[in-house]
Amino acid sequence: MVGCGKMGGALLSHWMQGNEQFTVVDPALDSAPDGARLVRDRSEIASETFDVVIVAIKPQMIDDILPDYASMLSENGYVLSIAAGCSLSRLSRLMGGAPAVRVMPNLPAAVGKGVSGLCADDKGQGPALAHAEAMMGRTGTAVVVDSEDKIDRVTAVAGSGPGYVFEIARAYVAAAMEMGFDEDEARALVLGTIEGATAMALEPGAAGLEDLRNSVTSKGGTTAAGLDALNGDGTISRKMRETLKAAYNRAVELR
Ligand SMILES: NC(=O)C1=CN([C@@H]2O[C@H](COP(=O)(O)OP(=O)(O)OC[C@H]3O[C@@H](n4cnc5c(N)ncnc54)[C@H](OP(=O)(O)O)[C@@H]3O)[C@@H](O)[C@H]2O)C=CC1
Ligand SMILES: O=C(O)[C@@H]1CCC=N1
Description:
Elements: H1 6-15, E1 23-25, E2 37-39, E3 50-55, H2 62-65, E4 73-81, H3 88-94, E5 100-104, E6 114-120, H4 127-137, E7 140-144, H5 148-159, H6 161-178, H7 183-202, H8 209-216, H9 222-231, H10 235-253
Bound molecules: NADPH dihydro-nicotinamide-adenine-dinucleotide phosphate and (2S)-3,4-dihydro-2H-pyrrole-2-carboxylic acid.
Domain Pyrroline-5-carboxylate reductase dimerisation: 148-254
Catalytic activity: L-proline + NADP(+) = (S)-1-pyrroline-5-carboxylate + NADPH + 2 H(+); L-proline + NAD(+) = (S)-1-pyrroline-5-carboxylate + NADH + 2 H(+)
GO molecular function: pyrroline-5-carboxylate reductase activity
């Protein structure tokens, strides 16, 4: 595994539940999870081969770093990347034509509640994709998508998504504090409300989101007043469209 920072580390802690042995190359890491081997420099393992090379470094570093790993892939091995944007064709080319699988995870994988999308190039269909899907299944919900472009769309919706949620929650908490609650109280009220509302929406057979919203909203009541201020003029709807488009456009730039 090349790089083991925030996202790679979150995944690795759950990937370790399987039967694979992991070697992590990361100059910044103090320790790897129990059972994983950590090396700080690729030269320490230069003569070894691996069934999978996992790319968990920043997309901007891939062109410089990945070619050094091409000779380390075993004959039937494949390259698995979690990097935003970087295309299957680029990954395969940098790895000497190896089968390639792209995964777009998200950070709640850290608590086993990630959602991820996967896709593979032609050579990566079959055992490579099946193996990657099994690995991602250990981290939450994994969905194989039918085109590579959809991975960039998964990135915009789910990969970056926790960032949007944390920002919305942050603003919600700040507003609650301005209403007189201390930070602990505001976090408990806001995060508990988000958790509870999400759990209701995820119940099997739950009503649609519009119906759920309406079930909170008494005519002429407090929620109606709040919702009118929140999205009465469509600001939130427009902002969400702009948010996803901006993230998708950036993924396309990183291809
Ligand atoms: N964070 C997220 O929520 C998500 C991230 N991703 C993708 O995951 C990838 C990693 O992102 P993230 O975990 O956030 O980033 P981090 O910066 O936390 O992790 C990258 C790690 O790679 C290390 N590194 C730098 N150079 C090398 C090298 N030559 N060899 C091995 N390791 C090296 C970095 O060390 P140092 O800090 O010293 O540079 C760092 O520990 C990105 O491609 C991103 O697109 C995908 C989905 C979600
Ligand atoms: O911000 C990023 O580029 C990465 C990819 C998705 C989430 N974090």
